[in-house]
Write a structure and sequence with these properties.
Length: about 240
Amino acid sequence: MKATPEDQNLLIELQLIDSQITQAKVKLAGLPEIEQITAIHTRLENTAVELAVVETELADVAIELRRSEVDVEQVEDRMKKDESRLNSGIGTPKELEQLQHELVTLAKRKADLEDGELEILMKHDGVKARVDELLNDQVGLKKLELELHVRLENAKAEIDKTLAELGAARGELVPKIDAALVELYDKVRISAHGVGAALLVGNKCDGCHLSINAIELERIKGLEADEIIRCEECRRILVRI
């Protein structure tokens, strides 16, 4: 296959544009904000699961606390009634003595219930604090997620702009090159990791960076300038400087 040296040089320009397009696409796919947003989604999901568990626990402890409060209130009510009867002096000495014993027992019962209530209250406060902490975490994570989305959209817009400019430059350049040469270049580029053409620098292919043996190099030197040559190692189109 033959192509003018001018077309071959333009092919290198095309390769530079295509390499920049590839780099831009790789950058777009690997923007750090994408991974960060994914990590935040995972944290939000984990937080939501834990929050559901802790909120259920808080509801159970709240019920337990209310039951304890009711028990204390009932004992207090009983003590008030007994104290009222005792203070009235109405009743036999034996009945009044029994009231005094009952008040002592109720006072001890009340003290035990209040100790239990205090423990439940402390547990309730601890669980409530964890709920508040998780809710604050959610707010903070969602705020950070929003900020990352803004940064991601800005970064995408910048790269999309670059890709559009590179696409326009490619669109202007391709018609200037022999169609058969571009077709060969595109086929090679697909099978050669995005690089279809490379410069022959000294005795090395700038595509695979391997040296060309002396016999092949001499053969290349003897070819006409419009002869298309291929690297024996990577099969990329070689363009002589």
